[in-house]
Design a protein that fits this description.
Structural class: mainly beta
Number of strands: 5
Largest sheet: 3 strands, antiparallel
Strand order of the largest sheet: 3-4-5
Distance between the termini: 11 Å
Number of helices: 1
Shape: globular
Helix content: 10-25%
Radius of gyration: 14 Å
Strand content: 35-45%
Order of helices and strands: EEEHEE
C-alpha cells in the first residue's frame, strides 16, 4: 500500500487518491504544431526512479498534490 502525505489530512492510503499523471510534462503553446500536441497528449516516458506526479485527494479534501515518488520502491 502506498501512503501519500496530504498536507491537510495527513498520511492517507492511495485508495483515497486519483492519479493525475506526470507533473513534469509541460503544455505546449496554443499555436503549437499538431505533432507537438500529439506528443503532449499521447506520448509519455516510463522512467525508472524518482518522478514528480499529480495526485487528487478525491476521497478527502479534494486538493491536487504534487508528489515525488520513486517508481521502483514507491517511497
Amino acid at each position: 500500500m502506498l501512503l501519500i502525505p496530504c498536507p491537510y489530512c495527513g498520511p492517507r492510503s492511495q485508495v483515497e487518491f486519483t492519479y493525475g499523471g506526470d507533473a513534469s510534462v509541460r503544455r505546449p503553446a496554443n499555436d503549437a504544431s499538431q505533432a507537438q500536441w500529439f506528443d503532449y497528449v499521447y506520448l509519455r516516458d516510463n522512467p525508472c526512479g524518482p518522478l514528480d506526479e499529480w495526485w487528487l485527494h478525491s476521497a478527502g479534501c479534494r486538493s491536487w498534490l504534487r508528489v515525488r515518488r520513486d517508481t521502483r520502491t514507491h517511497e
